[in-house]
Amino acid sequence: MKDGQKVPKSTPQQHKYNVHDVEKKWQDYWKQHPYGVTRGIGEGKKFYCLDMFPYPSGSGLHVGHWRGYVLSDLYARMKVLQGYNVLHPMGWDAFGLPAENDAIKKGIHPQVSTERNIAVFKRQLQEVAAIYDWSKEINTTDPSYYQWTQWIFLKMYQAGLAYQTDKPINWCPSCLTGLANEEVIGNVCERCGTVVELKQIRQWVLRITRYAEKLLEGLDGLDWPEKVKRMQRNWIGKSEGLLFSAHIKDTDIAISMYSRHFETFAGDSFIVIAPDHPLLPRIMEGLPQKEHILQESARLVQERHRHHAERDAEGIFTGRYVIHPAVQQPLPLWIAQYVLADYGTGIVRGNAHDERDFAFAQKYKIPLKVVLVPDDAMARELVERQTICYADMENGILIEPRQFSGRHAREVRQDILQYCVEQRYAVAQTQYKLRDWLFSRQRYWGEPIPLVHCARCGIVPVPESELPVKLPHVERYSPTDTGESPLALITDWVNVKCPQCGGGSEARNKYNAPMGRLMLVFPSLSYT
Hints:
3 domains; 7-stranded mixed sheet; 15 helices
């Protein structure tokens, strides 16, 4: 083009981009010629890229889904261009609470609403041209899939890793189901925001605590950010301490109290027990105020969520005293909201050198004894006058016991441990914050647990040759407020013959409920 010559103007028609036609053309092409399909086994370098499968619990994907998936999509594309044989599957975590709640909200059977939602989700992902290998698509509601989750559950049961328990669970009165501790945020259900209650329900639990130490050891070899590994370590919560033993005066009841910070044991001034501790009714036996205190304990549990600060935690004196072998006088036994029945032993030592204990003692005017002080004279006076709580186990100086007086607590920690063990006050013990995983749900939409309850044989696994135990169709699928699954209403499904002895419906009577085949459901392996 010569200098000074004008560039011809283009018309809008020449540069018009018809989004619908162009996108549709390439979407059809990619559907016929999918990009990034996994090649045969043994072909080239391999790379496995796995997204968290979405819950099909809404009418469509939102931008938050794609915000996560676009990163894995880009990475998978990069690996394809680098010559890797990439496996990038997609599936649907379609069983469980989110999908069922969506169905209940819409008034549609979960089977129908889940299928509709999946169809929309899949269409949306195909329209944005994410390079998933759809030949590897997984749906957790497919019996050919969940027969393997049932098989894995049977293997865990046979290995002693799955067991039943009657302890209280986190119960959401809105979702009408039990919740794992990780699903309760600030004492409310993470899904609906309803205040969680404690409810006594027979349930299935997985014994994940057996692997606490292996989980910790495995973190050392992971190429993860240190802050993520630190979060995991804190979640597992390993601590090494002492388990103190004591007796409750005028009873034959022995109790134990785990303590990570045992250096100040000589200052123990009272004992505190959780309001929902299973020993409490027995402890109160024979006392005239038993019924009143048990009622108050139940109230403390129900209102625990209202006390955001431990300084405001409520309590009540039981009227009992504890004979603590390391202390010269009986110690009063109190009930307090801040003590949790499922943490440690559910019973703790109370003294002046713990913020919670100090605040509780001040509130109820419980006399305290100071045995740890700072170097600074002015600060020491405040501590000895019990104006402030001093709990610095690193820099604090012990006053008692006499053998360790004048020394820093950190320097004599192991000496005190050995002393308490030798005096038979306590035994050394390692504990974890990690708790066994509540695995059962009191709902309909999920794979049935493949176990039969027989009055003669007890709990009997369904033979592997008979898996999967299919989820039956029901018209009434809404959850009950009793903690019983809607499947309990299907008597011809619940009442089955025992695979071991051939017995029939006797199993109903043993549990006072139609539990021939366990009605509770458990989440699929991809459900967290």
